[in-house]
Amino acid sequence: MEVIAIQKSVLDGMKMELKALLELTENATRKYVPIFNKEKWLDNQEVCLMMGITKRTLQTYKDKGLLPYSKLNRKNYYKLSDVQALLGVGQPYNIKYNGFTDE
Prior knowledge:
The protein folds into 2 domains: 8-38; 39-103, Multidrug-efflux Transporter Regulator, Chain: A, Domain 2. The termini are far apart. 53% of the residues lie in helices and 10% in strands. A hairpin with a 2-residue loop joins strand 2 and strand 3 (75-79). The chain has a 3-stranded antiparallel beta sheet. The chain has 5 helices and 3 strands. The model is unreliable at 94-103 (pLDDT under 50). It is elongated. The relative contact order is 0.11. By secondary structure, the protein is mostly helical. Residues 41-87 form the Helix-turn-helix domain. This is DNA-binding protein. GO terms for molecular function: DNA binding. InterPro entries: DNA-bd_dom_put_sf, HTH_17.
């Protein structure tokens, strides 16, 4: 085991910097907490598994405005209630007026 000795003032400075970094991180994420606490959010993979569709089909749903989404750090998230609503009306690819066919 290696032991490293540092001055107390240096250790205190490191502690203060870590506290400041933690505070910055908490402040940056605080605005997103209410969004995620109110409703369950799903990522691409979870939506595809839940709906039984491919990622390409999911992209088509997004492009056509059938499934709203939010982007956070270059990743898409979908409200569970929106996915359930889309499932409730039936799989969109079975509906001719959406431009999808089941062929």
